[in-house]
Specification:
The complex is a heterodimer of chains A (545) and B (99). Chain A is mostly helical and 545 residues long. In chain A, 76% of the residues lie in helices and 1% in strands. In chain A, helix 15 packs antiparallel against helix 17 and helix 18 crosses helix 20 (510-528). Chain B is elongated and about 50 Å long. The chains are: A mainly alpha (545), B mainly alpha (99).
C-alpha cells in the first residue's frame, strides 16, 4: 500500500487531516534551530518565519482563512519573540511553544468544523493518507486533551525548571515532539503509524524524565522508564507482528476483518491480542502492569510528571480504544473479561496503596493507576456511550491532575525535594488560594459533585451499567470511596492542622498561577456546565471501522 | 510448513531477550536484550511478509530498525549519564525510589 505510488503528489496529500501536528512538529524544529543558533537567532527566526508567512498568505488566498491566519501569526511570532526577549532565550522558547500549542488547539477545532463534521453535529469518520490516519472522534478528542494538557504544562513548569536549573533549550522541542506523537497515536489507523507515534512520544518522555541530570532520583526514574517502556514496546510490537502473521494486514480494519475469518489461525491471533494487551497496559499503567509508574512519577521533574499523567494516559487510551474496537471486535468475548479484571484490580489496588503513601507525587501516581481503571470501564462497555465516556473521562482527569501537580510544584519549589503530607500542614492558613485550588482538584479526582471528575465518573459508570458490567461499577464506587479518604486527608491536613512556622510559603509565579487557575476554572466549568463538551464527546463517538 | 521454523526461531529469540531483561542487572546487557527482542520481531515480520507475499511487513521492518537505532541513542545517553552519576551501570545497586 505504501509502494503503490512511486512519486509523491503533494496535492493528493490530505494536509488538513494532520494540520495541528504539522504546526507542532514544524515549531519543534524551529525552536531546536533557535536553541543552537547562538548569535544568529534573529536571522534564523526570520528565515523560518518568512516561509511560514508566505504559506499563510497562500492559504488565505486559496480560501482557507484560519489555517492561513495561524501560519502568518506563528511565522511573524518567531522573530517577534526573539526581539521581545533579548538575552532571555528561555522565555522565547516557552512563549513559542505555548503559542504553537494554542494554534494547534485552534486548528483542531477548525478541523472539526471543516473536515470531521462538515455538516455540523456528528462526526463523519473518514480515512486519510491511504488509511494511515483516521479522521474521527477518538483522534479529535485526544487532540483536545493532549494539546490542552501541554498548553497548561508549559506555563506551570516555567518557573520550576528555572529554579532547579534544569530548563535547557531542548525541553520545549521535546515536549512538542512528544505531543505530536500523542496526537498521531490518537489518529493512527495502521500498525506502523501506531508504533512510530508511540515511540516518538515515549522517547521524548524518556529524555524529559531524566532532565535533572544532577538529581539521581531523576536519573534512576529515567532509566527505569526507559527499560520498562522499551520492553513494553517490544512486547506490543511482537503482538503486532503476530497479528500481521495471522491476518496479513497492517491496517486495523483489515486485522479486524481478518481475525474473523476461519482461515486465520486462532492461536496466533489470541497470542497477538494477549501481547498487545500487555504492551498497551504498560503504557497506560493498568495494574498489574503499573510497576514503573510510581517510581517514574516520583523521580521525574514534577512538570514532566504532570504532563505524563495527563497526556500519556489520554494518548494511550486512544490507542487502546481504537485497537480493541476496530481490530478486535471478533475477540470481544475474550478481551472484555480480561480488561474488566485489569480495571477492577487497578481501581482497588491503586486506591489501597495510595492510602499508605507519604510522598504526594507518589500518591498521585497510584491515584493515576486508579483512574486508568475507571477509564477502562468505558472501554469494556464496548459501545458508543462507553467510547465517548472514556474520552470525556480522560479530559476531566487531565485538567484535575494538572491542577493538583501544579500546586505540588508551588510547594516543591520552596521545599527543594520531596513533598510529603507534613509539608502541607496549615497551608490553608498561610496560602489559602493555593490550598483551595489543590482541594478543588483533589475533590474532582475524588469525584465530588459540581466538579469535572464527578461528571466523568458518572458518564463512565452509566456506560458500564448500560453494558451490563454492574459488578465493575460497584467496584468503581467502592474504590472511589477508598480514594476519597486520602484525597480528603490531604485537604484536612491543609485546613485543619496548624502551620509550621519554619516552613517557607509556596512560591507562586505568574505562569504557574495562570496555568493552575485555568485548570481549576476548567474543573469547575466542566463540572457545572458540562453540556458543551459532553455533547462534543458524544458526537465524537464515531470510529473508522 | 517450512516457514514455521522461522516463526519458531524468532519466538525463541524473543523469549531469550525477555528472560535476559528479567534476569540480568547490567544496564548495557538489558539494553542488548531489548535489541535482541526487536530483531526477533523483525524476523517474524520478514517471514510473515514472505508468507503473505506483500511488501507491508518488510516496510515495517525498516521502521523497526530506525526506531531501534533511535532507542540506542536515547538509551546509551541515559546509561552513560547514570554511570557518571553513580559509577556503576548495575540497575539494582542504589535504589532511591521505593517503598
Amino acid at each position: 500500500m505504501f509502494l503503490a505510488q512511486s512519486s509523491v503528489d503533494f496535492a493528493s496529500i490530505a494536509w488538513s487531516s494532520f494540520a495541528p501536528e504539522l504546526v507542532v512538529v514544524c515549531a519543534a524544529m524551529v525552536l531546536l534551530l533557535l536553541a543552537v543558533a547562538g548569535r544568529f537567532r534573529l536571522a534564523v527566526a526570520a528565515g523560518c518565519g518568512l516561509p511560514a508567512v508566505g504559506a499563510g498568505v497562500w492559504l488565505v488566498a486559496s480560501g482557507r482563512v484560519l489555517p492561513g491566519a495561524i501560519a502568518i501569526a506563528l511565522g511573524a511570532a518567531a522573530p517577534a519573540l526573539v526581539v521581545a526577549f533579548p538575552g532571555r532565550p528561555s522565555l522565547t522558547q516557552s512563549w513559542g511553544s505555548g503559542l504553537t500549542l494554542f494554534a494547534a488547539l485552534l486548528l483542531t477545532f477548525w478541523q472539526y468544523a471543516e473536515v470531521l463534521a462538515p455538516h455540523g453535529g456528528l462526526i463523519v469518520p473518514t480515512e486519510a493518507l491511504q488509511g494511515a490516519l483516521a479522521n474521527d472522534g477518538i483522534g479529535f478528542f485526544t487532540r483536545i486533551t493532549v494539546y490542552l494538557s501541554a498548553l497548561l504544562v508549559v506555563p506551570i513548569g516555567y518557573g520550576y525548571l528555572r529554579d532547579r536549573q534544569i530548563g535547557r533549550a531542548e525541553v520545549e522541542p521535546l515536549l512538542l515532539l512528544s505531543v505530536a506523537g500523542m496526537a498521531f497515536l490518537g489518529t493512527a489507523n495502521d500498525l506502523i503509524t501506531l508504533f512510530i507515534s508511540l515511540e516518538v512520544l515515549s522517547m521524548a518522555l524518556y529524555v524529559l524524565t531524566g532532565l535533572a541530570r544532577r538529581d539521581r532520583r531523576s536519573q534512576e526514574a529515567s532509566l527505569k522508564y526507559f527499560v520498562t517502556g522499551s520492553v513494553a514496546s517490544a512486547i506490543l510490537l511482537y503482538g503486532m507482528a503476530l497479528l500481521y502473521t495471522a491476518t496479513g494486514s497492517l491496517d486495523l480494519a483489515g486485522i479486524g476483518s481478518g481475525l474473523g475469518l476461519v482461515t486465520s489461525p486462532p492461536v496466533v491471533g489470541v497470542l497477538g491480542l494477549a501481547l498487545v494487551t500487555v504492551g498497551i497496559g504498560f503504557k497506560v499503567a493498568l495494574a498489574p502492569f503499573h510497576l514503573w509508574a510510581p517510581d517514574v512519577y516520583q523521580g521525574a521533574p514534577t512538570n514532566v510528571t504532570a504532563f505524563m499523567a495527563a497526556a500519556v494516559k489520554a494518548a494511550g487510551f486512544a490507542a487502546l480504544l481504537r485497537l480493541y474496537l476496530v481490530a478486535f471486535p471478533n475477540y470481544a468475548s475474550l478481551w472484555i473479561p480480561v480488561l474488566s479484571v485489569l480495571a477492577a484490580v487497578s481501581m482497588l489496588y491503586g486506591a489501597w496503596v495510595a492510602i499508605v503513601q507519604h510522598d504526594i507525587k507518589r500518591m498521585l501516581a497510584y491515584s493515576s493507576i486508579t483512574h486508568a481503571g475507571y477509564a477502562t470501564i468505558g472501554v469494556v462497555s464496548n459501545s458508543d456511550a462507553g467510547l465517548s465516556s472514556t474520552l470525556w473521562y480522560l479530559l476531566t482527569y487531565a485538567v484535575a491532575t494538572l491542577g493538583a501537580f501544579g500546586c505540588v510544584i508551588a510547594i516543591e519549589r520552596v521545599r527543594r525535594g520531596e513533598v510529603t503530607l507534613v509539608d502541607l500542614r496549615g497551608l490553608g492558613r498561610t496560602s489559602p488560594m493555593l490550598a483551595g485550588i489543590l482541594t478543588l482538584c483533589l475533590l474532582s479526582l475524588a469525584g465530588v459533585p459540581a466538579t469535572a471528575g464527578f461528571i466523568g465518573k458518572l458518564t463512565v459508570f452509566q456506560a458500564g451499567v448500560a453494558a451490563g458490567h454492574t459488578w465493575l461499577v460497584v467496584i468503581g464506587v467502592v474504590s472511589s470511596v477508598i480514594a476519597a479518604f486520602f484525597y480528603l486527608r490531604i485537604a484536612g491536613t491543609m485546613f485543619l492542622e496548624e502551620a509550621d512556622e519554619s516552613r517557607g510559603l509556596p512560591l507562586v509565579t505568574t505562569g504557574l498561577s495562570a496555568g493552575v487557575s485555568v485548570a481549576a476554572t476548567l474543573v469547575l466549568f466542566l463540572g457545572i456546565q458540562p453540556q458543551l463538551l459532553l455533547q462534543l464527546a458524544e458526537n465524537a463517538a464515531a470510529v473508522v471501522r | 510448513m517450512e516457514i514455521g521454523y522461522y516463526f519458531a526461531l524468532s519466538a525463541l529469540l524473543f523469549c531469550v531477550g525477555l528472560v535476559g531483561v528479567m534476569l540480568r542487572r547490567n544496564a548495557i546487557v538489558l539494553f542488548m536484550c531489548i535489541e535482541l527482542m526487536l530483531n526477533a520481531i523483525n524476523l517474524t515480520f520478514a517471514a510473515a511478509a514472505r508468507m503473505w507475499g506483500g511488501p507491508d511487513g518488510q516496510v515495517f521492518v525498516f521502521f523497526v530498525i530506525v526506531v531501534a537505532a533511535a532507542e540506542v541513542v536515547v538509551g546509551l545517553a541515559l546509561i552513560v549519564n547514570l554511570f557518571f552519576r553513580r559509577g556503576t551501570v548495575d540497575v539494582d545497586v542504589p535504589q532511591l525510589l521505593r517503598y
